[in-house]
Amino acid sequence: MERHYGMDWLRIGAFGLLIFYHVGMVFVTWGFHVKTAHPADWVAVPMLLTNAWRLTLLFVVSGYASRALFAKSTGIDGFLGNRNARLLWPLLFGVIAIVPPQSWVEMVGQHGYTHGYLWFWIHDYFRFGTLNGAILPTWNHLWFVVYLWAYTMGLALLLLPRFSGVQTMFDRVFGGIGVLWVPIAWLLVTQVILFRRGEDTHDLFHDGIAHLAYFPAFLFGFGLAASRPAMAALARFWKPAAVLAVASYLIVAAVEIAYPGYAMPSRPIATLFHVAREVQCWTSIAALIGVAERFWNRDSSWRPMLTEAVFPFYIIHQTVIILVEYWLKPLGIGPVAEFAILVPATVAGCWAFYLIGREIGWLRPLIGLRRRAPRERAPVAAGADLRTA
Fold this sequence. Notes:
Blueprint: H1 5-24, H2 44-51, H3 54-71, H4 75-98, H5 100-111, H6 117-124, E1 129-131, E2 134-136, H7 143-159, H8 166-174, H9 178-193, H10 208-224, H11 228-236, H12 238-258, H13 267-295, H14 303-328, H15 335-357
Antiparallel strand pairs: 1-2
Helix pairs in contact: 1-3, 1-13, 1-14, 2-12, 3-10, 4-7, 5-14, 8-11, 9-10, 9-13, 11-13, 12-13, 14-15
């Protein structure tokens, strides 16, 4: 398959937005592992700009990347072997070494836990039970890796029969205006009409409504990677998609401003909010992919390194955010100064984790990087061809 640089840039941008979103979680009133001393309701308004579509987009681009990996694999066995190694080892390493500081900070700040981190990690973290209502050990933000692995296994089951004509059907359904209205209809039926979407549980076995959104998004990305008609349709309709995305966000934001914290007084207003949110979800994704196809499908000397770096960034970013805010909060410098320090500190911590980790051979597979061949150098040239999850 020909590499689509625009989708690479979209994937890089999606993970970058995720980092800023999790920084925002420190300052909004929604639940999080650590909070600033005075979280504000108004922070929810800019966060709702990406709240509806950021995770669904990640599954779409992950499905797209999976098609490219499948195309260069030696059958389904080779594809699954690659996915198992590139997802399960980072997940295991993350649960053991990356996530525990997040749980410790939450225990200390929200549950009055008095022991130090080392005691917590040795005596309490691996209890395989609960502590003050929190499940330990946990995967926290790495739930995305768990879901991605599960969806990959589901995809493999669909690939085994080698149904003929599936790609042709995909091209026919999504090769025109259906690329907008079919996913919107699916989201409205599954997330609003049949079920009312609430917060994701991040529990693989008890998150059915979220799976009805994320798994089809992953499959859509897989089909899109081999569908010129669907990609052309997204490029053709990106402007009306963007208009709908902005209009639906304005409705979402207006409801949030009028009724902060989802305190909606009636079912019609709640329904309006949820309908607008699902429309915003897909039209935003459609517009972004259309823009990536029209304007971003070009290479840069930075692209190979950034493409490789996003997965290690994802693995470490939330731990950096939580630890930095844990150290900042007692200083009493206020949310503006905290934000001004937290953003560059998080970016610096992510870069340090990646740049150091990529040079340590045994650590590379644990942070989502492929094993380096003998005398292989770090990816800095524009011609490098590296693919990650």
